[in-house]
Amino acid sequence: xxxxxxxxxxxxxxxxxxxxxxxxxxxxxxxxxxxxxxxxxxxxxxxxxxxxxxxxxxxxxxxxxxxxxxxxxxxxxxxxxxxxxxxxxxxxxxxxxxxxxxxxxxxxxxxxxxxxxxxxxxxxxxxxxxxxxxxxxxxxxxxxxxxxxxxxxxxxxxxxxxxxxxxxxxxxxxxxxxxxxxxxxxxxxxxxxxxxxxxxxxxxxxxxxxxxxxxxxxxxxxxxxxxxxxxxxxxxxxxxxxxxxxxxxxxxxxxxxxxxxxxxxxxxxxxxxxxxxxxxxxxxxxxxxxxxxxxxxxxxxxxxxxxxxxxxxxxxxxxxxxxxxxxxxxxxxxxxxxxxxxxxxxxxxxxxxxxxxxxxxxxxxxxxxxxxxxxxxxxxxxxxxxxxxxx
Length: 391
Description:
Layout: E1 6-7, H1 27-38, H2 55-58, H3 64-76, H4 95-114, E2 120-123, H5 144-153, E3 160-164, H6 171-176, E4 183-190, E5 214-219, H7 225-243, E6 247-251, H8 269-286, E7 291-294, H9 305-316, H10 329-338, H11 366-378
Parallel strand pairs: 1-2, 2-7, 3-4, 3-6, 4-5, 6-7
Helix pairs in contact: 1-9, 4-5, 7-8, 7-11, 8-9
């Protein structure tokens, strides 16, 4: 990497707090930055403190009436509408301000790339990919991913690929660009037959004039590192090469982990590290090295998210960590105080094997069938042969 990567972080991000025992607890962000700092990943890095996104930027993908509802929600009581005030999306103090700051963070990262100051940028507080044009969904109030992509399309980029590795379908980003041939949205997620939001089937191909720019690979529950990586390699690289994006945007949710309480895939921290390294390679290969990485889901707050996203930060910064690196004693002590009865890992690895056998056309497992379905739905639209494993 020639230019220094940009890292967006400010403690004010912790204000996006849905309260109580809600799964999306901002402690995961605090613990990640503490761990990355303790391991030296952020040494010498000037962290970018963002400003809240102004309304005109958020309104790229959201209705003005929805912004008004978000602003009013903390004073409006329970009858809010727009998906607000639900168990998934409870109302909280300064909800608009906290949500617009997340968007501002992803815009700040996007601006560093568009200006040429950096080829890579990361905002682990971002990745709120479920928010829709006029309503909140899946813990997401404003869709920072879609706002950043829309802004980039107006600031020097004509072809953007978005790859979503969260366990849940990246439905909000897909919806925002379903009819836009300039954006390729790729989502790898647990099958909609077994997990919310129940969308993300291979037949969701893109709207009229944008056929083939919506890609969905729905994996069976229980899929582990090697299965996930095999499926990824059988579909994503060929589609990215065919699409030829100028920039790669990734949503790097880590709720695919085997310990995550809200889903049923079986990846490890080692699998996440392998995913980030492959995304980095693909950004270098197909997008001139330009990579905007965002956070996302992840609800094992102490054991998983901090380690996985520390690996993400390290990968973006070309400061890859040895998986066997021990966790610093001070960090373990701090994390243990938050949950005294919760055993903590001692290193940056789950000691998992991430080697996989490349897909060669076999249909031996449910995951292979998912690969076949996605390839047959999408590959012909990009001039690729779905039955030829060389494509």
